Amino acid sequence: MSSSRGRRVVGVAFALVLAAGLAAVVVSEEGSAAPTVGADRSTLPSGTDLGEGETQAPREQFHSEFTGGRKPYLVRLGNLLFSSPQILGPAARQAGMSCETCHVNGTTNRRFFIPGASEKPGTFDTTSSLFNPKTDDQRLDALRIPSLRGIRFLAPYGHDGRTASLREFVRDVIVKEFSGTEPEPVVVDAIVAYLQDIDFLTNLRISADGRLAGNATATERRGEEIFMRPFPHNPSLSCASCHPPAAGFTDHRQHDVHSGGPERTPTLINANFNGPYFHDGRFDTYAAVVDHFNRIFDLGLDARAEGDLVAYLTAVGDGWNPYEPAGIDDTVEELEDFESVLETAINERDRTTVAFAVDVIGGELREMVERFPDHKSSAFPQGKTERAKARGAIKELILALREIELQASGMRFDLAAEALEGYEERREASLPALHAAERFSLYNPDFSRAYLAAVKTAREGMGQ
Amino acid sequence: MTNPRFARLSAVAAAVGLGILAAAAPGARATALDDGVASYTARAVVQIDRARDGAVRLQQRVAVHDLAGARAAWLESHVDWERSETFTGELYGDLDEAIDPWPDAKSGYHLIEARLFAGDPSGIEPAVAALAAKLTEFSKQIRQKGLTAQGLLNGTAKLTFEIGENKAAGGESAASGTSLADMRNNVQGIDDVFTIVFEPLLKTKNPELAANARRELSVIETAINVPDLKSVDQPTLTKASERLALALKASATDLGLEAPSLED
């Protein structure tokens, strides 16, 4: 799932490279809307990349489903709220950003980059003026966007382990980092329930006690031996003393590893998908991390030993089926989860949750529309008719959804329930049109690559 | 936004004797709807003419390498184009695709915009000449073919839905920095069509629906009456645009028209 972004699948990727705000004077008659200097100052600065339009998404492994059950209501509600800009402050709402924008499917967002608030892709300065001027520390000190997989095992929270409670941490992110209003307790409860349901991905390379499984290579086993071995100049320490394999590869404590102050020990589970590494994302690879520790602890590892350790970390950091296609069926499946929350809210006559649900589902649908480039784009005439039908079907769906909100806002919940039925029927009926257009859409990796390249080429031809 | 210019423009249209006949609504004779379409068509002709005139001035300014003048002419022409988007794509699709492609423009406003405001303007003469020619052609065709009530309802509903899209990344006219102005001009166009063509009849047929549509239009106008894109209350704008699109669709029956689709 990805957050709602409107016409930004292409827009953010390209439009923001433009030099905005050049408008000057316009001769305008009789009160027409004359452009003024800087009137297009937008929330997201030029050069922003929110990582939209990916054709693969990180796979979520939910504990409730993995153990044979279904996601409880509170988890589904939490997932919905996690995807809602409405719980954050005005700047995030205006930009259509939610928790999900940074933490795609509860993981990280390796492409995320906002000039002035990121030092490299996958990092973000939570104390910049962008979303809450009151927290602005006047320094660019971006932090790596962490994966939230297995977070229920990973207290304390924050890169420096400053907060013991996940609940308190979630509340602080909403209120302090993103200027949201004080959330209702159920909002925080639901988000925490959602986060606590996100498991680590199964890793068949390691056993239950965190040791390498039987299929490990000799290189990996040599790396494991180095990992467990006491440091030559301080035998009370080893890699494993801070990253104990039997305890989820973290000791839950803070350590100064010459990176600017004490930092909480991160887990190494599924870390292959979590780079860049260290709290500020300074290292892009395991090799760079190993080299750093080799130097600061004078471990005396030669190139082969460093390679062995990297191989071991790669085995520990693996996960089964880490990505899945971000296709139409996957999106619809997720929408069904949100729709079930909507149905419950209608039955409970809860118009606040109805409004949240309609906002999030509508945002997802609007992003879906943008995956089918419209007739104004000249890059790919093939599939134009199919795309138009798909776009039309989704837009009708969005209006059917709005009808639900309209009825619920007037406390006409019987009509809202009828409208929900109509919406669901329309969704089912729209699927053939969506599937027929899928190969001509940004859901198709080949089409997506070709289309984005064509747009880029055209933009370059335009002198941008 | 109401329509302070309406009376004056109608007078202008009458004075120049445009003689345009609006296509009649299905099965209807001279109705209130037909009158509205005729009035709005007169306004539309003036708008397209002004867009054309701006493009011709743009051509002149480019010819003498007057960048500031060229930018001003582009902006001037674009105001009326944006205001006309209630009918350009719906009723004159081929011209619209040549004049206003996006995001990978190989011709039209946005190609020229990028070169004038954010790139190298040298060598844009052919694109500018083509834009002026297309708008001249538009000016001819709209006099011949006019507009229809159904086409205006379809185009207005489509544009209303588009207004709800998020422009946080800078919108379509990011190079010139006029995306917010584009939105305002789009909404002015929607307001014009609703006020002139549909509202009078809808008020008599379904006053509640007419009032609902007017209310949502006011919400949209308030949401974009802000100093910059950053200040747009996006969730409110999206909600109101979808509610207004719903109202326009619902009005079709009362207006004796087909319910508009949101895509061609």
Molecular structure report:
- The complex is a heterodimer of chains A (464) and B (264).
- By secondary structure, chain A is mainly alpha-helical.
- Chain A is built from 16 helices and 6 strands.
- Chain A has helices spanning 11-14, 63-66, 73-82, 90-95, 99-102, 166-177, 185-197, 218-228, 239-242, 286-296, 303-316, 328-347, 351-370, 384-409, 413-438, 445-461, and strands at 56-58, 123-124, 143-144, 254-255, 263-264, 323-325.
- Chain A has a two-stranded antiparallel sheet with strand order 1-6. A two-stranded antiparallel ribbon of chain A has the order 2-3.
- The longest helix of chain A is centred in the C-terminal third of the chain and has 26 residues, at 384-409.
- In chain A, 47% of the residues are buried.
- By secondary structure, chain B is mainly α.
- Chain B has one domain: A middle domain of Talin 1 (Up-down Bundle).
- Chain B is built from 11 helices and no strands.
- The longest helix of chain B is centred in the N-terminal third of the chain and has 32 residues, at 32-63.
- Chain B starts with 5 loop residues before the first helix and ends in a 9-residue tail after the last helix.
- At the A-B interface, helix 1, helix 4, helix 13, helix 14 and helix 16 of A face helix 3, helix 5, helix 6, helix 9 and helix 11 of B.
- Kindly report the CATH topology of chain B: A middle domain of Talin 1
What would CATH call the architecture of chain B?
Up-down Bundle
Mean pLDDT of chain B: 88
Element-by-element helix/strand order of chain B: HHHHHHHHHHH
The poorly predicted ranges of chain A are 1-38
Work out the helicity level of chain A.
40-55%
Instruction: Detail the poorly predicted runs of chain B.
Output: 1-30
Gap from first CA to last CA of chain B: 29 Å
Report how far the terminal alpha carbons of chain A are from each other: 31 Å
Integer-rounded radius of gyration of chain B: 18 Å
Largest sheet of chain A, if any? 2 strands, antiparallel
In spatial order, strands of the major sheet of chain A run: 1-6
How many DSSP-defined strands of chain B? 0
Biggest beta-sheet profile of chain B:
none
As a whole number of angstroms, the C-alpha radius of gyration of chain A is 24 Å
Could you tell me the number of beta strands of chain A?
6
Listing every helix as H and every strand as E from the N terminus to the C terminus, the arrangement of chain A reads HEHHHHEEHHHHEEHHEHHHHH
Measured as a percent range, the helix fraction of chain B is: 55-70%
